[in-house]
Amino acid sequence: MKLSGTFSCLLLKKVTAGLVQLSLSAGVILVMPVPTQAEISYWSPQRKETPKSKKKGLLGTEKPKQNPDDPDPAYSAFLHGEFLTALEEAEKAAKKGQPEAFTLIAYILEKGLGVARNDKTAFEWYAKGAAKGDVNAVFAKAVMLAKGRGTKKNMREAAVLFDKAARKGHAAAQYNLALIYINGLVVDENISEAVSWLKKSAKQRNFQAQYDLGALYTLGRGVKKDSKKAEYWIGKAAKGGLINAELEYAVMLFNRFRKEKAHIRKTIGQLRSISRLLKLKKMSAKERWQAIKKIAGPKRMKAISRLPLEKRKVALKYLKDTPGAMLAAIPSATVKMTKKQRQEAISRQLLILQKIRKKEDAVFPRAFEFLYSAAQKGNPIAQNRLARLYAYGHTPSQKAAQGAGGHRAEIRQNFIIASKWHLLAKSRGVSDAKLDLVFSGLTPKEQKKVYREVDDWENLTILN
């Protein structure tokens, strides 16, 4: 089905500075959001984004008509950085009608490789390659139309070309077509259609498509909410090196057993509190209130006494009602247990908790690897989370095997390393009051060491 719909400036509200932007994942499981900025993808000869076929072309979708044992001279020269030779050879091949040659000429002109950059001429060559049927030329022409480079901006025509290249199996075109449907650009918004194209692109290892598909599964937008599928696709993107995906996947791994652990701890807490709650229930109102104040402690009671009258009344009422509410929340079968039965139930829950911790230990090195990678690449939220890990330390119940990248499952508390990552995150806009206290607690000599390490990291990043 061809793209259709009435063109309107209102439909282009998410096109900023020529880039189609998309925000699918907004910190699904993080304290601070991790926005996804998805823009129109590019094709380059190095990426070889061509549909799978029995006959693999060197640049396009068809094998050049030459001796298959000989390398393509234009492409070979291009790979060796001999751009003028590549241009000369491509022009010869273009005269013979090879579609891929037109695309290579256009790419060299568009990027200004060995020649003056010329978007207008590059667009003309892409148009010729597209007319000859080269899918990469079709895609590149669509990108230039969408961005208004070398030609007048025309999102409608770009969308049609993305659709054409997508149907020929071009992964980046499939992804861009999905963006068009998600953002309602020149067509009505259609999340189901977008998901269909995202899946096709994701299966061809388009990492941004994998990440955005995972985000849709997390949010339950256009698909049924599915945390396992979300983790699967975001994990794929993380393994591909996408920074935001690395961060979110790391957090997913860290939090994989969080709900299960919370439920077990709640159960243990209920089992341990039954005896005290039943005793409170049997007391008179006056005796019960005295016991509650003792449990709350003098500091909490003093803090409540300083509150304004209305807030103080609410706080005191909450304290009085808490034991009854807690008892009501405990299943009746649990309440009827004998003391021995409750002890046995607590032992069973603790055993389950121990097994979960062992699973966490096994997952930790992998989670740490992705978090560390995202932090090294400059993601401030990853840097903040890494700082917290070092500030509080992580001692597993059972030491896991050596993690990827040489990182152990055990993270020893280190305030200097924690402060280094905290300052890097803070310089990028992610502040943390608790980590500020950690840094301020260092001696002047230790603080100087932290500043040196921050400078070393920044200098190394600039060099890379």
Describe this structure in words.
The chain has helices at 73-79, 83-95, 99-111, 119-131, 135-147, 155-167, 171-183, 191-203, 207-219, 227-239, 243-254, 258-282, 285-296, 298-305, 309-329, 332-335, 339-376, 380-392, 415-427, 433-440, 444-463; strands spanning 15-16, 19-20. The chain has a two-stranded antiparallel ribbon. It contains 21 helices and two strands. The longest helix has 38 residues, at 339-376. It has three domains: 9-254, Alpha Horseshoe (Serine Threonine Protein Phosphatase 5, Tetratricopeptide repeat); 272-348, no CATH class; 370-463, no CATH class.
CATH class of the largest domain: Mainly Alpha
Question: How many angstroms separate the termini?
Answer: 46 Å
Mean pLDDT: 83
In this structure, how is the largest beta sheet organized? Answer: 2 strands, antiparallel
Poorly predicted parts:
1-43, 47-70, 400-407
> Tally of extended strands?
2
CATH topology of the largest domain: Serine Threonine Protein Phosphatase 5, Tetratricopeptide repeat
Q: Classify the beta-strand content into a percent band.
A: under 5%
- Summed up, the helix count is 21
Decide which structural class fits the backbone.
Answer: mainly alpha
Briefly characterize the structure.
The chain is an all-alpha fold and 464 residues long. It has helices at 73-79, 83-95, 99-111, 119-131, 135-147, 155-167, 171-183, 191-203, 207-219, 227-239, 243-254, 258-282, 285-296, 298-305, 309-329, 332-335, 339-376, 380-392, 415-427, 433-440, 444-463, and strands spanning 15-16, 19-20.
